[in-house]
Specification:
The complex is a heterotrimer of chains A (89), B (259) and C (232). Helix content of chain A is 70%, strand content 0%. Chain A has 89 residues and is an all-alpha fold. The longest helix of chain A is centred in the middle third of the chain and has 40 residues. Chain C has 232 residues and is mainly α. Chain C contains ten helices and no strands. In chain C, helix 2 packs antiparallel against helix 3, helix 3 packs antiparallel against helix 7 and helix 3 runs antiparallel to helix 9. Classes of the chains: A mainly alpha (89), B mainly alpha (259), C mainly alpha (232). Chains in contact: A-B, B-C. The interface between A and B is large, with 43 and 57 residues.
């Protein structure tokens, strides 16, 4: 290490007041880029779990329910990959 | 000619389709993510501590040059990420692959934060070097305009409701921006040489001594990896969000999906 | 022969569109005058905000006149497609058999004729008020002549992308400004060069090159953006 003691590490020949806040800001940006995606993921996962629970609450089955559910199952698989509905090439 | 068409039909399209499948991406990235994250963390710590503590001070700039280990990687990545966004935008427009749009959407905040950091580190570095907190030199000014371009893409995405329109509108905006970047760089460079004061040569990097070059290279690679890790996490969340109605997503979430 | 007929039809359609837009603009002269009045007001802000001294102002005059024109064009971009969008003629435009880039070029030309030209006419008045040295006037006019159509073209992209967005005023500015910066640099560069007594042909040539590029590429981008945003 090019610094003899902790004091000179903090001071850095007078430039410490520039270097350390810069690295602090860098740390903040890195932390933002770690925690922002993780928190977004937690939120979405919780949302999906809640929706799945609400959907699976047992209701008195009616013929209307059955048709709505079957339509949902069909439409999602095809549009999953591309934005066009139907075959791609 | 027939065999050529047949090969194209079978090989390229299946390969392409697999690449474009959100489910495939989710599963593959899930396997790679922990290793990439560990590697990124190791390289980041190595590069930055090496640069911060174990390199000799610069004979001209003293210890303030250590900011370079943050400034150069983030500046380089800010531009590289925008170009990647443009490529993703082109893929979105030409082949309509949703995964490309998810990539574009996920890259934007990361790129913006890196651009912002590059600007601030550049500005703070300027103070001990030339005595002012900001200087209108060519590179910093171009980076400022790049920040405007990033803000534009994010603002446009927020302003449009439909996901499909969002995707293609942001793709066009990014492509127009990427065509504009060389023009901006050239114009700002030219403008700067007109008004340049005598001493300002921030952006002329002297050839670096090897003891300083290695930690710099490691830092650049570390930030690249870090960008990839952050991008993958964001894209996985985006996939879960957009594909929430499919069975495999519901199963994955039930199974207690961790990142 | 059918190709020629199509080209002729396309050009006729474009001229018809220009004529229609000009007629509409003359029917509401107030709306067309707004950018000009704004131009005058903004240029007056600078002496009020900085200093009324002749020497200071004459150094800044080229930049102020140019930036004022840029801001005035930005303000007027909102009306490029919004009016047509509100009364349904934008959808009709997209349905027409003529090539959309050509029609879009017509709209941009009409926009420039109603806004840019007025700004160019006002510019000498402002330059006088701001004490721009007389030898720089030709450079100012020439650079604005090349720069204002360029700004209408580049701004059209932002206007097209945000045509269906509510309250998109600032968003258009945000999207268009990065495209305006090279134009501003070379436009003011020409004026500054003339003030210093040096040649400014190079700056004008660069502006001309950008204009040619813009004339070729911008209508395509604007047309693509309109199709994306309107058709969804």
């Amino acid at each position: 290490m090019y610094f003899e003691n902790f004091a000179s590490l903090v001071n850095m020949g007078g430039h410490g007041v520039y270097v350390w806040p810069t690295y602090g800001l860098g740390l903040l940006v890195i932390l933002y880029n770690i925690f922002s995606p993780l928190m977004a993921r937690k939120k979405i996962v919780a949302q999906i779990k809640r929706q799945a629970r609400a959907a699976s609450v047992p209701k008195a089955p009616s013929s209307r329910d059955r048709t709505i559910k079957s339509k949902q199952q069909v439409s999602t698989a095809e549009s999953s990959r591309t934005m066009n509905e139907g075959e791609v090439e | 000619m027939i065999w050529y068409a047949d090969i194209r039909k079978t090989m390229n399209w299946t390969f392409f389709h697999k690449l474009g499948s959100p489910k495939w991406f989710y599963e593959i990235s899930g396997k790679w993510l922990p290793w990439l994250a560990i590697l990124a963390a190791l390289m980041m710590v190595t590069g930055l501590t090496w640069g911060l503590l174990f390199t000799p001070p610069d004979y001209l700039q003293g210890n303030s040059y250590r900011i370079i280990f943050l400034h150069v990687p983030t500046a380089f990545l800010a531009s590289a990420i925008y170009v990647s966004m443009a490529i993703a935008g082109a893929v979105t427009l030409i082949w309509r692959i949703k995964l490309a749009d998810m990539a574009l959407k996920s890259m934007a905040p990361i790129g913006t934060s890196f651009c912002f950091l590059a600007l601030i580190t550049g500005a703070i570095w300027g103070k001990p070097t030339w005595g002012t907190w900001w200087v209108w030199d060519a590179r910093l000014t171009s980076m400022l305009i790049l920040l405007f371009l990033y803000f534009g893409v994010i603002a446009l995405r927020g302003a449009i409701r439909s996901a499909n329109t969002q995707a293609r509108a942001c793709a066009i905006l990014t492509l127009v921006g990427v065509v504009n970047i060389p023009i901006i760089k050239f114009s700002v460079q030219w403008w700067n040489t007109l008004h340049q004061g005598s001493t300002l040569k921030l952006t002329e990097k002297p050839s670096m001594a090897p003891e300083m070059l290695w930690p710099l290279l490691i830092s650049i690679a570390a930030f690249y990896l870090f960008f990839t890790v952050a991008l993958i996490i964001r894209m996985r969340t985006e996939i879960l969000d957009r594909e929430r109605r499919t069975k495999w997503v519901r199963n994955a979430v039930e199974a207690g999906a961790r990142s | 022969m059918s190709v020629d007929v199509q080209q002729l039809e396309g050009r006729k359609a474009m001229m018809g569109l220009i004529r229609r837009d000009l007629k509409l603009a003359f029917r509401t002269p107030g709306q067309s005058l707004n950018p000009v009045v704004f131009y005058l007001m903004v240029a007056s802000l600078f002496p009020l905000g900085i200093a009324p001294e002749r020497e200071t102002l004459s150094q800044l005059a080229g930049g102020i006149v140019w930036i004022g024109a840029l801001l005035a064009v930005l303000l007027s971009l909102d009306s490029l497609f919004k009016g047509d969008n509100d009364d349904g003629s934008l959808d009709q435009l997209l349905l027409s058999p003529h090539p959309l880039p050509l029609l879009v070029l017509g709209k941009v030309i009409a926009h420039w004729l109603t806004t840019g030209v007025a700004l160019i006419v006002m510019a000498p008045v402002l330059a006088l008020m701001l004490h721009l040295p007389e030898r720089a006037f030709p450079a100012l006019m020439a650079s604005l002549l090349l720069g204002t159509p360029l700004m209408s073209l580049a701004g059209g992209i932002g206007a097209a992308l945000t045509v269906r967005v509510q309250r998109s005023g600032v968003l258009i500015t945000l999207l268009s400004l990065p495209l305006y910066i090279p134009v501003l640099i070379f436009g003011t560069g020409a004026v500054q060069s003339a003030v210093d007594g040096m040649g400014y042909a190079g700056h004008l040539l660069w502006l001309g090159a950008f204009l040619v590029m813009g004339l070729c590429l911008a209508p395509i981008a604007i047309a693509a953006a309109l199709r994306i945003v309107v058709d969804g």
